[in-house]
Amino acid sequence: MGFPLFSYFLCFLLFFPNFSMQSSRRASVIRLPNGDSYGHPFDPTRVTQISWHPRAFLYRNFLTDAECDHLIQLAKDKLEKSMVADNESGQSIESEVRTSSGMFLNKAQDEVVAGVESRISAWTFLPVENGESMQILHYENGQKYEPHWDYFHDKANQALGGHRIATVLMYLSNVQKGGETVFPESEIKESQPKANEDWSECAKRGYAVKPRKGDALLFFSLHPNATTDVLSLHGSCPVIEGEKWSATKWIHVRNFDKSGSTSDDECKDENVNCPVWAAAGECKKNPVYMVGSGEGVGYCRKSCKVC
Ligand SMILES: *[C@@H]1O[C@H](CO)[C@@H](O)[C@H](O)[C@H]1NC(C)=O
Ligand SMILES: *[C@@H]1O[C@H](CO)[C@@H](O)[C@H](O)[C@H]1NC(C)=O
Fold this sequence. Notes:
This protein has 307 residues and is α+β, with helices and mostly antiparallel strands.
């Protein structure tokens, strides 16, 4: 059986004398703009689709062990009690709903963080600038995050980059027991086999993902038509044994970097092509992008003369 294959290979070498074993190594299908020599190459074959309602995907070994350890190291001494956003005002408040501790890294804080951020971007097809800075979370015995949505209920938080469209949750440690990510409303929660494995009671209440060092979970908080997906409800089950470290990247529908500034009040264009587009009548034809809507300000307000 091996012989015909081998002779085929010989013919191949005959016709393609420049072929070398080097070029036959499987390379990443997506080339990252600034290289990414620290982690694994981006490899979409390691992604499995978990469910469509909500849209959720699991990427095995998204991070190397070294990357996980590095992210924990960066956070270790800077943890503070995690907060939640108040439903009405959007202010950060403490809540019994969320008992972990955590901290935010800076975007592209070092080469490892920048590498992970560009890999997330390649995986989600969403630009790096739409992401918030990464949050590192630590859950000890009994700590949890009750089921919640990642999209905001208040208007103040949506002004910054619009709704959160997607979340990438990276597991930085293994957890002996508990600490699963659970989707209580997932349409496939009944069909997940739970008999043979060591799931916590909390995990049995929905579709659950076991935290495994290096794995990453991607789920979408918005439907493809940009309305909020109530099925994206998810929580972090209480840690029963061991401790849980995770990193979260929230990604918005618009640029999140520029929103920290007071650009809402400033009269300027966000794109060099704005004057040309405005002259071509785009302010009228494409007002949401050019001028803005209730959801946020547009990109060519100066050229459209609305400020
Ligand atoms: C916020 O509002 C949601 C939906 O109305 C509700 O389920 C949740 O309990 C509220 N959270 C807080 C902290 O008030
Ligand atoms: C958006 O898509 C969701 C899911 O397919 C659907 O339930 C909802 O009715 C749609 N909303 C609009 C306004 O099209």
